[in-house]
Design brief:
- It is a single chain.
- This protein is an alpha+beta fold.
- It is 19% helix and 37% strand.
- Strands 1-3-2 form a three-stranded antiparallel β-sheet, with helices on one face.
- The protein starts with 9 loop residues before the first strand and ends in a 6-residue tail after the last strand.
Length: 63
């Protein structure tokens, strides 16, 4: 899922999915329940897909 690195203060996940359907809503809800926050949302013009960037603090951060 997110790449773990001790030098990065945040774990970042970029995912492309359809927010309007049930699977997309469940994925979004799961990520928010896991402690991620939405950083950006970009909708594509010709399809229903949305690219969402999530982040949460890295527990292994050494900085």
């Amino acid at each position: 899922m997110a790449r773990k690195n001790k030098r990065d203060p945040y774990l970042v996940v970029v995912k492309n999915f359809v927010v309007a359907d049930r699977g997309g809503r469940k994925y979004m809800e799961k990520m928010l329940n896991d402690g991620y926050e939405v950083v950006s949302e970009t909708k594509t013009a010709l399809s229903r897909a949305t690219t969402v960037t999530f982040r949460k603090p890295n527990p292994d951060y050494e900085g």
